[in-house]
Amino acid sequence: MTIINTRLGAVEGADQDGYVSFLGLPFAAPPVGALRWQPPQRPGSWSGVYDATQHPNRCFQPPYPGTLGSPDFPGELSEDCLYLNIHTPAADAKRRPVLVYIHGGGYVAGSANDLDASTLCAKHDVLFVAMNYRLGLFGFMDLSRIGPEYATSASLGFQDQIAALRWIRENIQDYGGDPENITINGVSAGAGSVLAMMSAPDAKGLFQKAVAFSPAELALEVPDMAGGYAEALSMSEQAFFEHASGLSGAELLELQNDTGLGMGAAVDGHTIAAPIDQALREGINRVPLLIGNCEKEGTMLVASVDEDANLDQEAMLEGIAHTISAGNVDAYKIYLGRRTAEVNSGEHMAQIWTDYFRAPVLRTAQTAADVGLNAWVYSFEVPTDRPFGCTHSADMPFSYFLFERALEEDFEFPFHPNTEENRALAEIWSASFASFLRTGDPNCDDLPEWQPYSRESRVTMVVRETARTVENYDGKDAIEAYGL
């Protein structure tokens, strides 16, 4: 065990092979009792030595879909969940680049305990932090009609992320990190959160770079989750609030699971001031950006959605088409018809989901380029014989170089086998990732020269058996269909 003295007090961490883990550090007060559905508050102090050797609680959440092939993540489910984990090569005076990971899971699942990127830390001498934030109706339910004290309740999960970033900036130097070189990173909803932080005025100055793997755009209007729950329970909204306030966290989760009304992340006009393209134009948080997605994003998601009986898939897909095309649904449907002949087939649905992630990648990169900001775009297409192909989150093992740990633990990833070829590609791709963390530029040895995105060239780094850059990779039809 390692004990260090920090500005908040003494902390005991767990010694690992080549790094030290400090787990379950509180970045905000427990959001329980009177603090349920309230903005995060600064945590209290501690006396003695804080035990940071055990994984923290996870926010209340449903189980991950079985199709993800996820392991049983550590940590109990609890409302007392506002903690973060730090993995550092050494808690010394060295100022290392800091990677802050915001987990995905559709804003209803996931935790800081889901990913251990310590191999990347040890290999490239960077510091890795993963945060929790409130999920589902705990973090994204709009209660503003109940009273002014709940005016920003629709974005509590994002406020938690900002509180974590503020804590990191104030304290990370005690753990061997550089508070002036912080990169936020996420996958899926975590990548959507990255774009949200770029759109959050209160996050200004809390990070210097951003990496978004397969981002989903936030809804432009806050959904009426509270009204939906009230209707489901045949109550007035005030009666529902009083009823919900008396429920335990476990009972609230059961209510969320029974109704299927758990997700509600949106541009609220308060915490998240504007959609990412508008935020970039207004200069809220202009930082260098690395952004991209996987070739077959939709294959796994189609299988996941098919298992969810609560979803109105027709309405959902119409809404997705509107988001993809920036409102030009007819043009998008013509494009989709050229890509997939049979409407409502699995291929058709999978293409819609893939476009759902590709469109915000290109829209964000194009806006960044328009305002003079460097943004590097990739498409991850590494071949695999696994059932879903190179699908949603398949780039994660390569980016964080998890294959080395898999080799040690004899663990096979669900999307790509742990082969010598994949480990070699992971060496290159994770080195590019680490270069961006360190310098704000992903170019590195063994990777072709990678130019930032622009309207003129639209350069994409295409990662297959090898990596190569391609101009105008997506083609004119896709650009038009995405409303660009």
Short description:
By secondary structure, the chain is an alpha/beta fold. It folds into two domains: 246 residues, Rossmann fold, CATH 3.40.50.1820; 188 residues, Alpha/Beta hydrolase fold, catalytic domain (Rossmann fold), CATH 3.40.50.1820. Helices cover 35% and strands 16% of the residues.
- What percentage of the residues does DSSP assign to strands (E)? 15-25%
How many individual helices?
16
Using the coordinates shown, work out and report the CATH topology of the largest domain: Rossmann fold
SSE arrangement, N to C: EEEEEEHEHHEHEHHHHEHHHHEHHHEEH
Number of domains: 2
Just name the CATH architecture of the largest domain.
3-Layer(aba) Sandwich
3D structure, described in words:
With about 475 residues, this protein is α/β, with parallel strands linked by helices. The protein has two domains: about 1-225 and about 265-285, 3-Layer(aba) Sandwich (Rossmann fold); about 295-484, Rossmann fold. The protein is about 35% helix and about 15% strand. The chain contains 16 helices and 13 strands. The protein has helices at about 120-125, 135-140, 155-170, 190-200, 225-230, 235-245, 250-260, 275-280, 295-305, 315-325, 330-340, 345-370, 395-400, 405-410, 420-440, 475-480; strands at about 1-5, 10-15, 20-25, 50, 85-90, 95-100, 125-130, 175-185, 210-215, 290-295, 375-380, 460-465, 465-470. The chain is globular, with a radius of gyration of 22 Å. The relative contact order is 0.11. Mean pLDDT is about 90; it is low at about 65-70.
